[in-house]
Write a structure and sequence with these properties.
Helix content is about 75%, strand content about 0%. It is an all-alpha fold.
Length: about 375
């Protein structure tokens, strides 16, 4: 942990997960495959774990950074911050859809508008749509956490996945004669609808958020000193490693193959969540144990590597917009060279934006004014709901 109270291991894993998510989009864009089938298989599994890790760590952030301030006298400010962040996510999501309308022939203006209203899909930026909703309801999640405790929330998440065999047989809105836009919205919110629309849905994705809250609580239950963090992280990481090893032995489409080709994610299978949760716990606990107690100078150097975490919204919005605007046939000719060029460009963009925001120049000042502007409607929304 550094002087600001942040746990550097969590920040590192979060940044790596964001980079991995962007790399997975780049690989889809260029069609890159590794020569050895086994290596390609493992590569794709590793990339597919990025988004779940990021969502789990969002839950840890709620528990460790937001909940301590979510107390009488401070709740309105915390709720306003979360809702302002949700509005920023939606605005950036809408901006990325504009890029799709401009650059991709199959994105018409009506479909683009429907997509902005959560009744469409995008190739890469639906993570911003997911976060826009989850951040907006995060104050309610904190209220439930404070009133009920963590374990009832965890039990509710487990029961939700246990009910998957029943939920998957529910008729989709399209099967009931409703418009396809409603079908897409139902799939996004409740995972009811066409399986090829992807996932995770908001309701099931919240289980990752709750798991992250539990992880944050368990890691810091004995305090945030280096010995306390290592004492908690090492056995927790051992349990997670054992779970990953057992799950890796599952055969067929319900095993690692289903992770690599996204089959499990698209159908919302509980094993998708069961696979990715221990992977997220293992990555986080290893990083926390390895960095806890590191000298201040080492932590400062490590913190410079966490710029993806500090620029996550910028990276997801403008990094994916760069992919939308890149001629696909150009990068598909040389998949490896194209992948290297695109991920290097995205990394440079995010690093440079992080540097600009750390300063006091005109670009940083304008960006902060824009960010502050979202706080105005956020505070009004909080005031309206009391």
């Amino acid at each position: 942990m550094n002087r600001s109270g942040r746990i550097i291991g969590i920040d590192l894993v979060r940044s790596v997960a964001i980079c991995g998510a962007m790399l997975s989009h780049v690989v889809v864009m260029t069609g890159l495959t590794l020569p050895a089938p086994a290596a390609d298989h493992l590569f794709r599994i590793a990339l597919q774990t990025s988004a779940p890790i990021f969502i789990v760590l969002f839950g840890s952030m709620l528990e460790l950074a937001y909940r301590p301030k979510f107390v009488p006298g401070g709740r309105a400010d915390v709720a306003a911050r979360l809702i302002a962040r949700a509005l920023q996510c939606w605005a950036l999501y809408a901006l990325s859809v504009v890029a799709l309308i401009v650059a991709w022939p199959d994105y018409s203006l009506p479909f683009g508008v429907a997509t902005m209203l959560f009744m469409g899909v995008t190739p890469f930026t639906d993570i911003l749509k997911f976060y826009a909703v989850v951040l907006a309801i995060a104050p309610l999640l904190l209220i439930a956490r404070n009133r009920l405790g963590l374990w009832p929330l965890a039990l509710a998440a487990i029961l939700l996945h246990a009910a998957w065999p029943l939920a998957r047989d529910l008729p989709s809105p399209a099967a009931l004669g409703m418009p396809q836009e409603i079908d897409r919205l139902a799939k996004f919110m409740f995972e009811v609808g066409a399986p090829d629309l992807g996932g995770p849905s908001v309701i099931r994705g919240l289980s990752f958020v709750v798991a992250g809250m539990v992880l944050g609580r368990v890691l810091t239950a004995a305090g945030r000193t280096a010995p306390a963090l290592r004492e908690r992280a090492l056995p927790l990481g051992g349990i997670a490693a054992a779970a990953v090893a057992v799950l890796a032995l599952l055969p067929g489409p319900h095993g690692p193959r289903g992770l690599a080709d996204m089959t499990l994610r698209q159908i919302g299978h509980p094993i998708y969540y069961l696979f990715n949760l221990p992977i997220a716990v293992l990555a986080t606990t290893l990083a926390v144990a390895a960095t806890a107690g590191a000298p201040e100078g080492t932590q400062a150097r490590l913190r410079r590597l966490t710029f993806f975490g500090r620029t996550s919204l910028f990276t997801f919005a403008f990094g994916n917009t760069l992919l939308y605007l890149t001629p696909r046939d150009l990068v598909e000719r040389q998949p490896l060279a194209g992948s290297i060029a695109l991920i290097a460009a995205i990394t440079l963009m995010s690093w440079q934006f992080d540097r600009l925001m750390a300063g006091s120049g005109p670009i940083a000042a304008r960006a902060r004014r824009v960010q502050a502007a979202f706080g105005v409607p956020a505070r009004r929304i909080v005031a309206a709901f009391g």
